[in-house]
Amino acid sequence: MDDRVRGRRKARGAPRASSVSVGPSPEYRVAPLDDTTWPAFARLVEKHNGVWGGCWCTWFHTMAAEKTRTYEGNRALKEQLVREGRAHASLVFRGDDAVAWCQYGSPRELPNIYHRKEYLAGMVREPDYRITCFFVDRDNRREGLASLALAGALDLIAQAGGGLVEAYPQEAPAKKASGSLLYSCTRGMFERAGFSYDRPKGLKHCVMKKVVSPAS
Ligand SMILES: CC(C)(COP(=O)(O)OP(=O)(O)OC[C@H]1O[C@@H](n2cnc3c(N)ncnc32)[C@H](O)[C@@H]1OP(=O)(O)O)[C@@H](O)C(=O)NCCC(=O)NCCS
Questions:
Q1: How confident is the model at residue 25 (pLDDT cuts 50, 70, 90)?
Q2: Which helix (H) or strand (E) holds 121?
Q3: Ligand 1, from 48, 185, 191, 195: best to mutate by most atoms within 8 Å of Cβ?
Q4: Residue-range definition of the domain harbouring residue 180
Q5: DSSP string, 124-176
Q6: pTM of the entire structure?
């Protein structure tokens, strides 16, 4: 990946690079989701009616008993977590518009994964980070932006000190699968980013791992 990384390095769990330019195209840049990029993130979510019927990308943050289950409640929760530095994502920008994201965070920040019981039974070591959710503007899909968002997330993790990163993509989706069910993307995409297969998770997903070195 031809990337140039600028910005400060912070403690694990609180990456705050000023920006990350990724890939050969100067058209896109990647920046962390934080209080300065929240308005652009919110515009992207609002354009898609809250994403997943008003989830605001909160599903993985909360266990069942903590869920607000309303558009406004989820929006407020997400904003609070972002402003407190407890919700992380790489945001892909074209100009001033956010067009994609890749959500990542520690297991403590993102406890609510699918097939949790089966996952915990097979877990040898808890990862430092997990990658849980992707979203790309409906006007920009199938152009590689999810892959770009993943590259940006891995850069931000490296800047935060690196560590063991897990992802839970679909094994082999149909060539034209429903975009909303592909929120964790594909095994092939993670293989290209240097992840290795660890074990199955549920019927269609798997656990994949990569050790990310600290940025120098
Ligand atoms: C799934 C999604 C992130 C893919 O983004 P994208 O930018 O179009 O993906 P890319 O072009 O980078 O392709 C990444 C991989 O996904 C595959 N892919 C993308 N859309 C696909 C589709 N509709 N069907 C099958 N495969 C698809 C690509 O073939 C590629 O796979 P490969 O590397 O194994 O060949 C996008 O469709 C999306 O945002 N869907 C909505 C997800 C959602 O609702 N998330 C929020 C939950 S809160």
A1: low
A2: helix 116-122
A3: 185
A4: 15-212
A5: SS--SEEEEEEEE-GGGTTSSHHHHHHHHHHHHHHHTT-EEEEE--BSS--TT
A6: 0.90
Residue 174 belongs to a domain: yes
User: Domain of 19: which CATH number?
Assistant: 3.40.630.30
Q: How far is the CA of 53 from the centre of ligand 1 (A)?
A: 18
Length reported for the chain: 216
Give residue ranges with CB within 6 A of ligand 1: 51-52, 55, 57, 59, 133-136, 141-147, 173, 175-177, 179-180, 182-183, 185-186, 188-189
Q: CA-to-CA distance for 50 and 106, rounded, in angstroms?
A: 23
d(CA 46, CA 42): 6
pLDDT tens string 80-123: 999 999 999 999 999 999 999 999 999 999 999 999 999 999 99
How many structural domains compose the chain? 1
Distance 73 CA to ligand 1 centre (A): 27
Q: 164 with 211: CB under 8 angstroms?
A: yes
Q: Which of 53-57, 66-70, 206-210 has the lowest mean pLDDT?
A: 66-70
Q: Answer yes or no: is pLDDT of 22 > 90.
A: no
Which residue out of 28, 59, 142, 147 has the highest number of ligand 1 atoms within 8 Å of its CB and is therefore the one to mutate?
Answer: 142
